[in-house]
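Morning run. Coffee first, then this:
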Amino acid sequence: MCTNCEEFRIFSISLDCGTHGSRHGLFSCVCNPGKTDRHQFFDTTISTNWTYEDYHTWFDSLKVNKNHVAGVVGDGLPAQVKGLCHWRPEGALFPGLQTVYIRCLNHVLNNAIVHARKQCPLLNELMNRVHQIIIIFKNHDMRARYKIRVPSIPETRWLYIYDTLFFIFDNLETINTALRSGDLPLSLSRATREQLQWTRDGIPPLFKDALMIFKLSHTEMAHQKGDIFGANNLIFLILSI
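And here it is:
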């Protein structure tokens, strides 16, 4: 637990949940907007299940002066983990505290990407082929041979599109050479190899068009920083395809 949270005097607590297998983690950060715009890591608690009552128990167990807590910020999106209870919008979670429910920008973008891929066959084809290229270069031998670092972000995250396109853009010549030479990992199954027959022709025109749009959007928005910079590039790319 962070030992300097009392230095904030009055602070807010922001929470999010993550899951690993059957275990759910509640991750907490504290912030005093009057002193800093950055949240500091506060606490993490792991459980096999989280219920409404569990949140009360967790809050009661915190070794902080509850009079210094100004409010609680909770995820306004429905929980996507079975058995995991997020904040209840029908009432304040803790008596005497303001509970604010917000929609996480990252979650909204994740859902937007899923919807866009369903509605746009061209975008879906692009991302399927991006994923196939990532599979090729995630192979240990391929990484060692070409000295490149492959993004490891889950495919369901919006940053997956951003980082994988960046990866292809930065290593375009190397990737094109490897694909044209038919240099595929020996560990790939026969079915996977058949799916990758298209790679013998190198990067397809679809990729080149998307990468050019990505390059232009990156140049236009290079003055921006942080996650919103990546989000703007991604949105610009999707709307331009």
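Strands lie at 11-20, 23-31, 40-47, 69-75, 98-102. Good start to the day.
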